[in-house]
Amino acid sequence: MGWNDTGLDLATRDFVNLELNLLRGVHTERVIFGPNGQWPAVNGSSAALTNCGLRMVIDVPEPTTRWRMGFQNFNQGNLVAANALTGKGIKVGRHVRTGGNRTGNFVASSAVSLVSSDFTIPGDGSYYLTSWFTDPTEQLDGEHILAVGYTQESSTAVINSVGECWQWATSTSALDDTVTTSGTLRANTPLGWYIEYETFTARNQYLFLGDSIMEGITGLVGTSTSTIRGIPMGRTWPRRWADQMGCLASVSAMAGFQASVWNNALLDPYLWDRYNLATTDYKALIVHHGTNDINTGDSLATLKASYVNMIEKAFTKMGKRVPLILVTLLPRTGFDATKNGIRRNFNAWLHELPLGAVACMDPTLDFQLGTSLANQDSNAVSMYTDGIHPSYQGLESLRKLAATTIPLA
């Protein structure tokens, strides 16, 4: 028997639907999606630009009920201002794939103009925030192309953030949904951006804290930066794990940042506050941090102190403790005997499950050359793109291990 046969009025039907959804655990989740910010020390800067058009692939696992975007041009790593940019428009539409490959192009007649007038993308560390997009025709569901354009008065380099994009020499080209050629595929994106969306879902959400291993630097198998390739932000291993397990993931991760940086209150607006920690019911906290602390010369004691302070800060901002999963540090090209010793001792400490952790996710067996002491500090080449970051194969290994390690609520 269908709803039309029940004899119930519409208000009663809506009430019954709501009660059924509550019984199924359906609720509203607010999720943060995108790279964490711009920093030239890791991602570099683009060539000098006066006019730029960008397209990025946006992939969300559940239909949105409303969403908005934030844009900035700011050296987040050094907290240094950059030029303000003039936004020239924002458009979204379905993404065309050819032979399974991403193209950066719109499905014909699917594009919707979200912002058609000029707007200011600030360079002082604040964000231009769009209004909430609430119209059903504007919602995200699956894989979309997001197009944005900007100009600036002086020809100045723009710092990159992590993540694949297609770039055009003019904003009008990227924003013209009929244009299907001439965009340059890039491994990173000359702009700071993120999406905040809400979805009505039965999925639970998990918070990831990390560095470039979580944020999404990856590529072909290799030993240098020449093999690094960009991926959409929805294809990072935490989000791939979430897709597989029927969950949602918000990822506060920044390439090149140390655990100690998360304790710098000046960076709270970017690393903590926009993740709505006090109001989001995150079911667990998954942490990968420490390799950059070791690389910059921190001792084991200093690293442990920074790590503990960062995690306790997360729980304080959440207003509660949630299940904690710790991820060990991978072998890394360039570490000497002292740094490798710190890494191994730190990993051994993580296996003790400090801070009340419920699990330790240990990918080192897959990423090290062998189990002997001599091989524990050497890379399994096929798992790396540049001796530091996981290759595509390495990302898949991390996803699989997460699926057997992270307990679900």
UniProtKB/TrEMBL annotation:
Where does the record place the SGNH hydrolase-type esterase domain? Answer: 208-394
Q: Which UniProt keywords apply?
A: Hydrolase
- Hydrolase: present as a keyword of the record? yes
Q: Which Pfam families match?
A: Lipase_GDSL_2
Looking up InterPro entries in the UniProt record yields:
SGNH_hydro, SGNH_hydro_sf
Q: Which domain of life is it from?
A: Bacteria
Keyword Transmembrane helix among UniProt keywords: no
In the record, what terms sit under GO molecular function?
Answer: hydrolase activity
The molecule here is called SGNH/GDSL hydrolase family protein
Species lineage? Bacteria, Bacillati, Actinomycetota, Actinomycetes, Mycobacteriales
